[in-house]
Every structure is written in structure tokens, then in C-alpha cells.
Amino acid sequence: MFEVIVLAIALSMDAFAVSIGLGAKHGAKTPYLALRAGVYFGFFQGVMPLIGYMGGRGVLGWVEAYAPWIAFGLLLLIGGKMIYESLSNGIEDDIAKVTHRIMLVLAIATSIDAMAAGFSLTLLDVSPLIACGIIGMTTLVMSVLGIFVGKKSGTWLENKAELLGGVTLILIGFSILNT
């Protein structure tokens, strides 16, 4: 269960970073924006790993001997991507108004990584529904928190959160190899 909580926090860092940017640049109606960000990001971060899990279960029989290495590779790629993105400016700079369509696009974009990480759930001894619920709720809380942090502090924490999430995913990948 500990691995799921760490995975949930790491996966939520992408949404947290985007939420910080949104809060810093679009914090006019902060509680409403926080609620929207939490619901959108939390929902998609909770559903996408389930899709990845189901896909992983479908191919697990064929690649069972290599499953830890595949999960490691996916987490390494996702973590590396998050680290790379932490070194660049966020997409929030280009958003003039935060509409439902924009929130949907951001939620899907930040949760694609979670779908790939969902494959690693096939290797953990936990119910995938519980794991996805934990991931979704963690992301909801982190997204709401991110909006308020962004409003108060600006964007200086945005890239650091994404960097931390990327490093954590890579460390989870190494821990899967050791089990």
C-alpha cells in the first residue's frame, strides 16, 4: 500500500504543477478554479491508471517474465519526461481564459502518464480500484492545494514539484526491479 501512496503523490505532481501555474495566472475566482481543477485532474488521474492496468493485465501473460523491466522502463520514461518538463515553461502561460474545454485538455494531458504508470499496478499486491481511487483522490487534493499555492506564491514552486514527481517515479521504477 505504501508504494501506491508514493505513486499517487508522484503522479499528482504533474497536476499539482499545472494547478500552481493556473492559480498564479488565473486566480480571480480561486475556490471555483480550485474545485474545477481538483475534479478534472482527480477524475482523469484516477481513471487513466485503471485503463493502463487493464491493458497491462491483457498482455501480462505474454510478458510476465519481463513485466518488472517493462514497468521500470515506463516509469523511467515518465519520470524522465517530468524532469525534462520541469526545466521548461508551463503551458499555463498560453491560456488566456480557463474554460471547461481547456480544463479537459489539461486533465487529459497530465493524466496520459498515469495510464502508462497503471501498468505497474499489475505488479503491486493491491486492488486496482483502490489504487486508482487513492491516485484520483490524492490528485484532487494536490490540485486544489496547487491552485491556492499558486495564488499565494506565484510559479516558483511549479517546476520543483514536477521535478520531484519525476525523480520519485524513477525511484519507484527501481524499487519494482528489486521486488
Alpha-beta classification = mainly alpha
Number of helices: 6
Largest sheet: none
Shape: globular
Helicity, as a percent range? over 70%
Radius of gyration: 16 Å
Overall strand count: 0
Question: On the 0-100 scale, what is the average pLDDT?
Answer: 80
Strand content: under 5%
What ranges have pLDDT less than 50 throughout 5 or more consecutive residues?
A: none
H and E string: HHHHHH
Alpha-carbon distance between the two ends: 14 Å
Integer tally of domains: 1
Q: What can you tell me about this protein's structure?
A:
The chain is mostly helical and 179 residues long. The protein has one domain. It has 6 helices and no strands. Helix 2 packs parallel to helix 4 and helix 3 (67-86) runs antiparallel to helix 6. The longest helix is centred in the N-terminal third of the chain and has 34 residues, at 30-63. The relative contact order is 0.29.
Compact summary:
This protein is mostly helical and 179 residues long. It is 79% helix and 0% strand.
Question: Which labels suit this protein?
Answer:
179 residues, mainly alpha, globular
Summarize the SSE layout with pairings:
Elements: H1 2-25, H2 30-63, H3 67-86, H4 100-117, H5 128-153, H6 158-177
